[in-house]
Amino acid sequence: MPPPRPPAPTGAPSAPGNAASVVDDVMKNFKKVARKEYLLVIAAAMAALGIAHIPDMYQASANWRTGISGPLDKPANQLMRGISTDSGKDWIAEDQEAFARAVDEFIVHVETVRKHAEAVGSSVESVAKMYMSYWTSIGSLVIAVLPLVFSLWALAKVPHPAVSVPARIAKMLVGVSCIVTVGMFVDAVMDFLKAANNIMSAVLGAGAAVQLATLAPTGGSAINFKEAKIEWTRPSSFTEPRRTAPAPYGN
Asked: pLDDT above 70 covers what percent of the chain?
């Protein structure tokens, strides 16, 4: 009697566009092969520790990079430069230069925030790629052992100890090997996440660079807009008379 043919594996695509189906495909294959070797249930449970919503990670990365970092790049820079330039056209008071310097300083802070946003987006994308690599590796492992386990399972059914006993032992060894391999994958993921956490902590904990509230003026420079008033009274209307000759002394 020929051994039963194992079901065709669905694989684990690695393209971000298929990220939503990666975990489902791998776990479905795990369930198929675990029916023939129960030790693989342990490996599947260990692999499930790495379940994550990969598409949301890619979306979060895009939000940081194109939603925050992008507008803070050239659009914000050009806007603030334009404000500084326009202020010098009709603003003739001495504080115009102080305003221009403040704009330049603000641009420097905005650029710092932009770089931090870009760094956060890159870090999130790296985590997403790591999870994609993790599940792709798990999927490749399952696909590799699936036909082997099915073949050994069929041999273990042969009513002859010289065939069935070695097949059972080999099938168990495959299960143990998968547990060890998945454990190594999980450890690698944990190490990567620890490193990513350190990077994110350094980026988001960089102090005033990412806290726009610290750019607000304080002390004597603070402005209370609720109490601010604009004086609309016209300035003095006095016009000095035109003199053709110096006025006599005393007049």
From this structure: 70
pLDDT band of 69, cuts 50, 70, 90: confident
How many secondary structure helices (H) and strands (E) does the chain include? Answer: 7, 0
pTM: 0.62
Q: How far is CA 206 from CA 116, 201, 203, in A?
A: 9, 8, 6
For 243, the 3-state DSSP assignment is coil
Q: Half-sphere exposure of residue 120, counting CA atoms within 13 Å on the CB side?
A: 24
Element (H, E) at 147: helix 95-156
CA distances in angstroms from 120 to 12, 115, 180, 231, listed in the order given: 27, 9, 33, 47
Question: What was the pLDDT predicted at 203?
Answer: 61
**Contacting residues for 191 by C-beta, under 8 A, at least 6 apart:** none
Q: Under a CB-based contact definition with an 8 Å cutoff, are residues 31 and 149 in contact?
A: no
Query: Which run of H or of E encompasses 78?
Result: helix 74-90
